[in-house]
Amino acid sequence: MKVTVFGTGYVGLVQGAVLADVGHDVVCVDIDAAKVAALQAGRIPIHEPGLAPLVADNQAAGRLRFTTGAAEGVAHGELIFLAVGTPPDEDGSADLAAVLAVARTIATHMAAPRTIVNKSTVPVGTADKVADAVRAVLAGRGARIPFEVVSNPEFLKEGAAVADCKRPDRIVIGTASAAAERQLRELYAPFNRNHDKIVVMDVKSAELTKYAANAMLATKISFINEIANLAERLGADVEAVRRGIGSDPRIGYHFIYPGVGYGGSCFPKDVKALIHTARSVGFAPEVLEAVERRNDAQRQVLAERIAAHYGSRLQGKTIAVWGLAFKPETDDMREAPSRALLAALWAAGAQVRAHDPVAIHEARRLFGERPDLVLCETPTQALEGADALVIVTEWKQFRVPDFAQMARLLKDRVVFDGRNLYEPAAVARHGLRYESIGRPAAEPPQP
User: Beta strands 351-355 and 373-375: pairing type?
Assistant: First the structure.
């Protein structure tokens, strides 16, 4: 099938490459000429495991092309995906300017029937707005060209987006059109062979499904963080509690790892947008508001721990930070807990030596050159000259460190672990004080 994707961010680029990989003829359109030139030259603008070879292979095979030409893209695709950004507005609502601009662009260049597939995360009712925008432009042209607008939300995890796209656990299609449903079923047939993963529903339900899924996952994260905070005050171990509740299949282990709150481009934005949507129809989203409040508070936990340990003596201290991305296997620092931590450390007069396996360049772009930040190429480099270590992102490279070396390098011999990577007693045996989330602090044995 001939497919056009507007937008070459995480969603559009991955979706386009994976569709090309199963044999579809895909053109990706972006208004960013520099990004398109980089993609044409084989340079991938994001860190996503497995994406670079996938793009290269399908470009070489002629199934995947990149262009800034909107007219070319509209002429090519019988199915046109909208995969552009919907950043949060000041009131928390999703900004639909890019989505509606692409809809009008499609209508401007349409010369034959098209099915417009909304892949962007958008509020309920957006498909109607897209259809209205297309109809208005067509009417202005005096053109009568049939079209459909379908909701087909993505459920990709950054760091595992290629795998998720190749092996989806569900494919949600929101449409009342039998013809559009047939098109989408044909498009996704290569991903739907083992068992039927397609769930067809009305458009508004499909739009709400995406928000509800992310809000549910965010709720699980905020819930376990709340239990962790309670466990600390009661003298319980949240890791034991996590295993105890996770063994219940009704609850499961996914997304109940205590930590320093959720971040990234999806959960914070989507929870805010769903809260805004609820309020706009006169409904009080009390659970969602609590989820957001708990997460906002949880992002300050590490800074509070450090401040409690050092009191007013942080001025001039050097803190090593392991992990800057909001999660492993990505360089994305949008809403990353590390940003809240760094801001608090700098405000208290501390110096930072930070390491992240892939997000160093993004940190350099965000923070620039500043005297209180040293970006280090290795975890060990970050420890050199540091007083304490803070772990923010659970990269696998951090899971089995040399604790003896850590104890030698850290002047104050204290570790603040925001991801509960280690067994407290094992860390303490090496002469380190170990503070984690929802567990009692572990002290080195007395000589």
Answer: parallel
Query: Which single residue is written with the structure tokens 């001025």?
Result: 315
* Alpha carbons within 13 A on the beta-carbon side of 327: 14
Partnered with residue 414 across adjacent β-strands are 388, 433
Structure confidence at residue 432 (pLDDT): 97
Helix, strand and coil in the chain, % to nearest 5: 45, 15, 40
Helix axes 286-298, 267-280, angle to 10 degrees: 150
CA angle 87, 328, 441 (to 5 degrees): 110
218 vs 156, 223, 274, CA distance in Å?
A: 15, 8, 12
Told to judge if 376 belongs to the known catalytic residues of this protein, a careful annotator would answer no
- Token digits for 241? 């509690």
- pLDDT tens sequence across 24-70: 999 999 999 999 999 999 999 999 999 999 999 999 999 999 999 99
Q: What is the 3-state secondary structure (H, E, C) of 118-170?
A: ECCCCCCCHHHHHHHHHHHHHHHHCCCCCEEEEECCCCCCCCCHHHHHHCCCC
**Relative orientation angle of helices 238-246 and 203-234, to the nearest 10 degrees:** 140
User: What kind and span of H or E run contains 174?
Assistant: strand 171-174
Catalytic residue, chosen from 28, 165, 266, 376, is: 266
- Give the residues of the chain that fall short of pLDDT 70: 447
> Is 415 strand, coil or helix?
strand
This prediction has a pTM of 0.92
E strand or H helix at 434? strand 433-435
User: pLDDT tens digit string along 356-415?
Assistant: 999 999 999 999 999 999 999 999 999 999 999 999 999 999 999 999 999 999 999 999
Distance, CA of 326 to CA of 237 (rounded, Å): 25
